[in-house]
Amino acid sequence: MKQQLAILGGGESGVGTAILGKKKGFEVFVSDFGKLKEKYKQVLINNEIEWEEEGHSEEQIFAATLVMKSPGIPDSAPIVQKLHKSGVNVVSEIEFASKFTTATIVGITGSNGKTTTASLTYKLLSDGGLNVALGGNIGKSFAEQVAEDTYKNFVLELSSFQLDGIENFAPHIAVLTNLSPDHLDRYDYKYENYIASKFRILMNQTSKDYFIYNADDEEILKWLSNNPIKSKPLPFSTKKELKQGAYKRNNEIIIKINNTEYTMPIATIGIQGEHNVKNAMAASTVATLLRIRKQTIRESLEGFQGVEHRLEKVLKINNVLYVNDSKATNVNATFFALDSMENPTVWIVGGVDKGNDYTELLPLVNEKVKAIICLGVDNQKIINAFGNVIDTIIEADSMPMAVEIAYKLAERNNTVLLSPACASFDLFENYEDRGRQFKDAVRNL
C-alpha cells in the first residue's frame, strides 16, 4: 500500500513537496486553510495531485503516515496541535526533501544577512563551476529541485520556522550570520526559544561537518560556551584576529583554513557596509571549503550587486535617492539600514509588529531621520517610540500614499528609505510585494 503524505499549505514549499512526494511514490494530498494561488493550482492539476482550499478535511489529513507543514503555519494552529496530540509525524519541507538527495548541502541561517549570504555563496560556487542550486527560504522550493534530481550541491537559506520542523536534516556546512530578536510572536515572546531554534541547524552535524559563525555576536558566543558542538568551528570577525576562519586586518579580509591563508581587499567587494563584509567572509569561507579558486572568489565578490529589496537603490528624483529595503522585517535589519544612511532621511516604517523593541534605533533616528511615515494598520507603537525625537510623523494606509508624502517631505540631497522593521502581511502579500509596490510608486512619481 502507498504511504500517505498530507501537506498543509499550498504555497512554494507545499507544492514543491507534493511534486517530490508523488515522484517518490507517496499518495499525496495538499490542504490549504486559505485560497491557493492560480499558478500553484495549475501545477497540482497538471501533476494529478489531489488538493483542497479554504479549509482542512481532517479525516483525510489524519489518515496520513506523514504530514509536511509549510513554514508559515505556526505550531499553535489548531490542526497542528491536534496532529501532535494524535502522534502523527509532522515535518518541514527541508526535512522531507533532504532524505531524497545525496548532494552536499550548505545551510545558512541568521536573523539578518542570510539572503545576501546565501545568494553570494551560490554565486561563488556557481562561478567556480560547481553544479549548484539555491533554495530553502528563497527562490524555487528545495523539494522541487530535489525532484529534478540534477544538482550535486545545494545552498539553502533556512528560517527558524524551517529548522523547527527538522529531525535528521544535517547540512555539511552550516552558517549562522547573527542573532537578534525576531519572530518572537512565534516563540512565546522568549528570545532564548528563538535562539535555540536557530541552533537546530547544528543538531545532527558530525565531526566531518563545518560550522561557520559570527564571532562578534555575543549571543552566539554565549550559546556556544554552554553547548558542546560536534562539527568543526570556523568563526568570522571584523573585530579580532582569529587562528582559524576569516577576519579583517587593515582593509583586507584574511581567510585561514587548514594551514592555508589568503587575503582579499575589502574595497573590491561589490556590496558596501560592515555587515556585508561579514556576509562576504561567510560566503568566501564556504567557497574555500568547497575548493573554489581564490581568483574566482575575488572576481565573484567584485561582481556581486546585492539582492532585491535589501538596501536596493531604486531611482534618484530631484536629487533625492529612493532606497528599497523592504526585506528589513526586524529591528536589527533596519538598524543596519539607518546606520548606512549618509544624508537626512525620510523613513517609511511599519507593518505587522512581531514583538519589536524600537529603543536601539532611537540614537540613529535622532541623528539621521528628519521625518517618519508609518505604513501599517496599527502604528501606535511606532508613534509612541519616536514621537519625542521626531516632529513629523505621518500615517499612510497604502504604498502610493506613503511615497507621495515622502516625495513632498524630501528635499535635495535627502534619502527616502523604505525599511519597515516589521512583517508585511497587514497591507501586502509579502515583503517582495511591498518592495515592488514601493518601486512602482517611485517610478510613477
Automatic annotation (TrEMBL):
Protein name (record): UDP-N-acetylmuramoylalanine--D-glutamate ligase
InterPro entries with a match to the protein in the record: Mur-like_cat_sf (IPR036565), Mur_ligase_C (IPR004101), Mur_ligase_C_dom_sf (IPR036615), Mur_ligase_cen (IPR013221), MurD (IPR005762)
The protein's role, per its UniProt record: Cell wall formation. Catalyzes the addition of glutamate to the nucleotide precursor UDP-N-acetylmuramoyl-L-alanine (UMA).
Subcellular location field: Cytoplasm
Stretches assigned to the Mur ligase C-terminal domain: 309-422
Protein's organism: Aequorivita marisscotiae
Keywords (A to Z) from UniProt: ATP-binding, Cell cycle, Cell division, Cell shape, Cell wall biogenesis/degradation, Cytoplasm, Ligase, Nucleotide-binding, Peptidoglycan synthesis
Record's catalysed reaction(s): UDP-N-acetyl-alpha-D-muramoyl-L-alanine + D-glutamate + ATP = UDP-N-acetyl-alpha-D-muramoyl-L-alanyl-D-glutamate + ADP + phosphate + H(+)
Broad class of where this protein is predominantly found: cytoplasm
Stated family: Belongs to the MurCDEF family.
Entry's EC annotation: 6.3.2.9
Residue span, Mur ligase central domain: 108-287
Top enzyme category: ligase
